[in-house]
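Shape matters. Shown next:

___
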Amino acid sequence: MKPDLANKKVSVVGLARSGMAAVRLLKKSGAEVFVSDFKSIAPQGLKELDGMGVAHEAGGHTEKLLDSQMIVISPGVRADIPILLRAAMMGIEVIGEIELAYRAIESRIIAVTGTNGKSTTVSMIGSILKKAGKDVHIGGNLAPGRPLCQLACETRPDSIIVAEVSTFQIETIKTFKPYIGVVTNISPDHLDRHPDFESYARLKGELLKNQDETDHSILNLDDLNVQKYCSGYRGSRLDFSLIDPVENGSWWDGRSLYLTQDKKSRKILDTAELKIPGKHNISNALAATAAASVLDVSWSDMAAGLVSFRGVPHRLEEVATVKGVRYINNSMCTNNDAGISSLRAFDFPLVVIAGGKEKGTDLSGFMTEISKRARAAVLIGEARERLKAELDSLGFSRAVLAGNMSDAVRLASQQAKAGDVVILAPGCASFDMFRDFEDRGEQFKQAVHDLEGR
């Protein structure tokens, strides 16, 4: 299955983490590689490119990248920019990084997509398969995980790859076909990249479009959008549900997780044994359990993998307790539904730090949840004025504005009382004030630790 790339001229567009991994894989395959990046290239990246003998350009794309037989684009690069449209018209194949990786990978792939819960579900599956003794590797779009092109270089045919996959990646697949495709949920997001919700939701379903009868899909039975956009593909289907027992898959009775196979149900574990809070994380655990069942993992290994799982950084991450107030970092919360789920994970009085870069989505549900559940809110980023206006319209007058994360945490600490939870639940993207969501979460954690030192 490995592609014959020896001496083939290939351009890589966008040299972030995925782009550099693609360059390494291409060089390993004997390709002649050229790199083009719209931004500047960091000194460390330049040093590595020069060390591999890779020609490059930065600060924009020129016709040099058209002198190639294939173009590989990073997830952050739109496939409809003029020079890539021109490349397609010239007959140059344009693919994404995960498509390139798929053509080189010989092991089975579990791909997880959805609006929320992807990273946690990927990590839960990884934890379960590790307990089961599998040679499992997690990555894809998972931060700070490894891109698929890197895993293509590191895995064996008997390995299992569990990969987080975004719509930015799905829109450039051609033959990519996961052995198991998981869709956690679908709600409006990234409408600054996709033209409308219909386009975004349809892309989620296209994760499964190349599957055949030997493959499997794991679908959220409670999510009408998942049912609408992800049903009808050829893979064998399993469901998971927080509401009803399912005939083939995993479900929750309000207290315990169950798995049904061959019309027989068995309890996996009580959800009180899970170490991470929130009903949404029970749903993630159900998805992970169903995926593991396809690989004939024992029920005891499923339970052990879930019980030992302690979460992913920047997803409901416990930071510290200062003067009786718990501080929770949920920087990965970047949309309306994630904001609602974040707040509903706690039965304590809340002070919420929210806001960031607009993504063209409706945040009214999240604002309503803040107005009902929060003692106070501290708002940051370019969306802060809009969010304050929405909270004012709901009669919530306990919102203040902050100019940076340090001030936001300080203001939140002044509003909180012993027994409260201060949670960073932005509901927005991070790029207006921070390098990425990880940078935002790290700055939150540093500000909390600064409180400890006072």
About this structure: The CA atoms of residues 35 and 108 lie 29 Å apart. The chain has a mean pLDDT of 95.
